[in-house]
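Input (structure):
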C-alpha cells in the first residue's frame, strides 16, 4: 500500500466495494468476516458513512449503498462534459417553480435508469415535493417516457427487455403498447403522466436538447389529479418554454 494514502479512507472504500457486490446488502458481521477487520472498526466506518447518507441500514440490519452516492455519480457523468447541466438548469427550475407554485424537476437517464438530477420546490398549497437523487421507474411517468422516446432503437430494446412493473391501472407494462406511446410522445414533443406512478399524481414533461439536437434531460412538473384543464395547459406551456430556454443556454 502506498505511504501517501490514508488507511481509514482505504478501509471505507473497501466497505463500499463489498456492499456494492451484494444487492441484498451486508450486515456488520458479514462485513467483518469479508474484510477481516475488527467489528468496532467496521461499525465506526458504516456509522460515519450513514451519517453522510453514503449507506443506509434496512430493517433487517443490512447496509446498502445510499442516495448520496447516486447524486454524486450523476454529477460525475454530467461534468465529464464541458458543462454542468444541473448548475445551468437550476435558475430556470427555480423561476418556473416560483411562477407556477408547483415543484419542478430535471431528470436524466444514466446506466442505472431514471435519476432526478435537480429540482426546485413549489410554494403553492398542495405542491408536490421533489428532490434530487430520487430514482424513478424507467417506464412510468412523464419524464421517464420522454427520455425513453428519444433513445436509439438499440438502447430502447435494452430498457424494455427488463420487467415493467405495474404501479397503477394507468401504468403501461406491455412493451408493444409502450413503444406506440413513445412514438406518439416523440411526435408531440412532450409527455404526460395521467397517474402511472400514483393515482393522485399527474405531470407534464418536456425535453432539453443540446445545440446539436441531442436530448440530454427531461424537465417535468408534477401536480395533483383533478387539476382544471386550463391550469394543466398553463403548466404544459410553461414547461415547454422553460425547456426551450434551458436548451438555448447549454453551451454549444
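Output (sequence):
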Amino acid at each position: 500500500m502506498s505511504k501517501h494514502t490514508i488507511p481509514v479512507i482505504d478501509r471505507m472504500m473497501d466497505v463500499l466495494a463489498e456492499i456494492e457486490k451484494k444487492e441484498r446488502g451486508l450486515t456488520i458481521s458479514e462485513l467483518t468476516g469479508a474484510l477481516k477487520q475488527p467489528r468496532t472498526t467496521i461499525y465506526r466506518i458504516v456509522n460515519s458513512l450513514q451519517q453522510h447518507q453514503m449507506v443506509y441500514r434496512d430493517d433487517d440490519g443490512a447496509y446498502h449503498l445510499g442516495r448520496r452516492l447516486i447524486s454524486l455519480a450523476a454529477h460525475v457523468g454530467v461534468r465529464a462534459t464541458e458543462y454542468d447541466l444541473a448548475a445551468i438548469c437550476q435558475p430556470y427550475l427555480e423561476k418556473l417553480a416560483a411562477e407556477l407554485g408547483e415543484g419542478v424537476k430535471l431528470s436524466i437517464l444514466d446506466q442505472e435508469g431514471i435519476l432526478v438530477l435537480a429540482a426546485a420546490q413549489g410554494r403553492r398549497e398542495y405542491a408536490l415535493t421533489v428532490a434530487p437523487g430520487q430514482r424513478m421507474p424507467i417506464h412510468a411517468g412523464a419524464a421517464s417516457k420522454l427520455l425513453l422516446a428519444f433513445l436509439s432503437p438499440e438502447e430502447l430494446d435494452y430498457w424494455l427487455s427488463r420487467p415493467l412493473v405495474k404501479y397503477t391501472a394507468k401504468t403501461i407494462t406491455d412493451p408493444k403498447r409502450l413503444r406506440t406511446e413513445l412514438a406518439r410522445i416523440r411526435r408531440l414533443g412532450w409527455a404526460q403522466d395521467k397517474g402511472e406512478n400514483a393515482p393522485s399524481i399527474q405531470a407534464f414533461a418536456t425535453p432539453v436538447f443540446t445545440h446539436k439536437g441531442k436530448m440530454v434531460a427531461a424537465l417535468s412538473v408534477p401536480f395533483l389529479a383533478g387539476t382544471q384543464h386550463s391550469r394543466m395547459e398553463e403548466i404544459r406551456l410553461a414547461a415547454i418554454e422553460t425547456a426551450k430556454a434551458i436548451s438555448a443556454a447549454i453551451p454549444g
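Notes: Residues 7-65 form a domain with the Arc Repressor Mutant, subunit A fold (CATH 1.10.10.10). The two ends are 44 Å apart (CA to CA).
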